[in-house]
Specification:
Layout lengths: L13 H13 L8 E5 L6 H8 L4 E6 L5 E3 L2 E5 L14 E3 L11
Parallel strand pairs: 1-2, 1-5, 2-4
Antiparallel strand pairs: 3-4
């Protein structure tokens, strides 16, 4: 499945628009039942949009801002992605949009 064809055209505020544009631009082919990680999930709720666009995927987000939640098929982890210890090859697709500049700011 090409993610570009499934992500909504207009979503949320500026962060939502940037997220959508970036995901459509990468036009990555990923399995419908992929395990997906979003790094920096607290600024814009892309995971809820992803749940609607990608209903069969396992969705996980991590951000230093919390709290931990697991609802509607979306798991959010409060933590440091650099120290979390995800198993190698745990995810089929990892994305981080507008988050790198926040890592290390506390």
């Amino acid at each position: 499945m090409k993610i570009a064809g499934t992500w909504p055209g207009i979503v949320g505020d500026t962060c939502g628009q940037v997220c959508g544009k970036a995901l459509r631009a990468c036009n990555r082919d990923i399995p419908e039942d992929a395990n997906v990680l979003e790094i920096g999930c607290a600024e814009f709720d892309a995971l809820s949009v992803a749940r609607a666009a990608w209903p069969k995927m396992t969705l996980t987000g991590i951000d230093w801002r919390g709290p931990d939640t697991d609802e509607n098929g979306v798991r959010r982890i409060q933590g440091d992605v650099m120290a979390h210890g995800f198993e190698p090859e745990s995810f089929d697709f990892i994305y981080s949009i507008s988050a790198i500049e926040h890592i290390g700011l506390g």
